[in-house]
Amino acid sequence: MEVAGVLLCLAAAVLAWGLLRVWDAWERMKSQEQAGLPGGGSRALLVTAHPDDEAMFFAPTILGLARLGHQLSLLCFSAGDYYNQGEIRKKELLQSCDVLGIPSSSVTIIDNRDFPDNPAVRWDPGRVADVLLRHIELNSIDLVVTFDAGGVSGHSNHVALYAAARTLCAEGKLPKGCKVLALQSVNRLRKYISLLDLPCSLLLARDALFVLTRQEVAQAQMLQLQKDKCRPQAVNSHLHTPSVKGGAQPATPKSQLTPRGEASFSATQGRAAGKRASLLGPQPCVHHHLPRGRDPSENQDLQNCVPVAHPSVLQWKELPESADSGNKDLALL
C-alpha cells in the first residue's frame, strides 16, 4: 500500500506539473512574450517559396500575428509555374492573402529564372539571402518567418529559404532588432492527430505557438473553398497530368508523392478536404525543430504535409544569438 501511495503521489505531481506547463504555454501564446516578439505595429515578413505555401503551412501564424497587431507582408520567391500555371497561381496567392488580411500592396512575387519552381533545382542560398536582405532593409522588417531545415515537406525550395535565413543570421547581416522564426517540422503522425496534439504542442513550445480561434478557423477554411471555386476549368485541362504541386489540381482522386517527395493532390481530393474541414474542423499540422546538431537529411520522419485541410496549430523556434560570435545563428532543437 505504501508503494502504491508513493506512485499515486508521483503521478499526481507529474500531472499537476504538466497542467501548469500547458497553462503557462497557453497564456504566453496569447501575449507578445512569445520569442520576444516585437510589439504591435511592427513589420512582419512571411517568406515563402511558392503560391499556396501561405495557406498550407502559415495560415495560423499569419492570423496569429495579425491578432497581435503586426503589420504583415509576404515575399514569395516563385510564381509557382512548375505546371505552366504561374499566372493562375499568382492570382490565387493575392486572393489567399486578401482572406488572410495581407493587402495586395504588401505582397511581392518574384518571377525570376534564378528561382524556378522545381524541386529538382537547388536555389543558390547566397542569391536568396541577397534578395531577402535587400527586401528586409527596404521595408524596415522587424520579424521574418519562414521554413526550417526540413522545409516541412522536404521541398528543396523551402530548404533554400532556411539556408538563406541561416546565412543572414550567422553572418550578422540582419538589421538590429530584426528577429527570425523558423517553422518547425514534425513527423506525419503529429501532423494529422488534430487537436489531440495540442497539449503536446503546448508542452514543447519554446518560442512561439499560434493556435487558431473558432473565427480564424473559418477564415482559414475559406482559402480552400476559394481554390475550389476559382479553378473549375483547370481540372479538365489537366486530365492526363499524373500529379501536381499543392496549388494545381489534376483529375486523379488519390493523394500522391512525386519522386522528389513533393506534396501533390487532386481536384477531387481538394474538394473532399474542404467538405471534411467544414464538418470536422481543421486538422492541425504542428511543426517542430530537429534535435540540436542532428542532420535533417537523417530524419526519416520528415514527410510531406499533404494539404487535406488547413493546419490550426503551428509551433516556431527563434534563431537566437550565437554565444561565441555575438551574431545571430540558427539553433536546431
UniProtKB/TrEMBL annotation:
One GO molecular-function entry: N-acetylglucosaminylphosphatidylinositol deacetylase activity
GO cellular component: a single term: membrane
Record-level GO BP terms: GPI anchor biosynthetic process
Segments of this protein annotated with the region Disordered: 234-303
EC number(s) from the headed UniProt entry: 3.5.1.89
Family membership: Belongs to the PIGL family.
Record protein name field: N-acetylglucosaminylphosphatidylinositol deacetylase
